[in-house]
Amino acid sequence: MNQLADVLTAEAFRPSRVQDGCTVASLLDDHPLPLLIASQEGQSIHNLSESLRTLAIEALSTTGGVLLRNFKVPTPLDFKRFAASFGMPLGTYEFGSTPRSKVFAGVYSSTEYPAHQSIPLHNEQSYTRQWPSRIWFHCMTPSQTGGETPIADSRQVYQAIDPAIREEFIAKGLLYVRNYSSALDLPWQQVFNTDDRVKVEQYCQSQGIDWNWSKDGELSTRQLCQAAIRHPASQEWVWFNQAHLFHISAMEQNLRQALIDAVGEAQLPRNVYFGDGTPIPDATLDAIRAVYAQTCVDFPWQAGDVLMLDNLLVAHGRNPFSGDRKVIVAMA
């Protein structure tokens, strides 16, 4: 039995126990994701015991996700302090692909897409060569309906994808093409957190990104990236890219055709090709999306929840919702 199967067998039906005033168990009856650590007395999240912190860190490297529930997290600053307490510097949202608001240094809003839209499962910034290794979500206000953050084990995704698709993606790599524009997508000033072209070019050069400025000052970039990687600690293969988000087939058909008619495929806000520049068939991306749908699990948010994920082992997304919803994010 391989290592992933061992993990799933050992942890899928983890018995509930009490440790240091908290209930420890798998949140879901039929899946190891996420491990639940629930305070029985509503203690401050800063008072999480050292043994439970150690348990959470160990669970991140095996199961890949931990949900802390019924702890007091009074303010976004408390959330930041907790995330930073694990000893990894919190990062900024550089070279982002979706709109977010900065709460303060190291803490951001979750992706600000309209409530009726789904955000497909993905590993954060896996469309780049530099990504966060851990990510924290804090639910300040759960939505009235929906709004779950579905998660999926990236090892399972890797194993469930058709081997022929998997091998072609790994062999060829992926070429992400982006055209920045305030009219159709994010402006480059927001993506790179600067209005200085020199700083943009320095960043691109450091990350192996090809760039081009148009006559009217708009920016286009192209970057070759991975389709899958080995986890640096366990050496397990994980599916790690955002081809199914960037590909033109992610658009609704009418919008897709309207954009092509308006600007041409080469000027779409974002698209992805195989690393040799050849197109990826729509059906291939549909098959990958089907694997995510088959492997994901979700749960309703509760106010105060903190979800910790190993960003390489676990993909995340967002379900449509109604009512107010406020979830903030930190990355390391």
TrEMBL record:
Transmembrane segments: none annotated. Keywords: Antibiotic biosynthesis, Oxidoreductase. The keyword Transferase does not apply. It comes from the Bacteria. Its cofactor is Fe(2+). Residues 38-329 form the TauD/TfdA-like domain. PANTHER family: GAMMA-BUTYROBETAINE HYDROXYLASE-RELATED (PTHR10696), TAUD_TFDA-LIKE DOMAIN-CONTAINING PROTEIN (PTHR10696:SF56). This is SyrP.
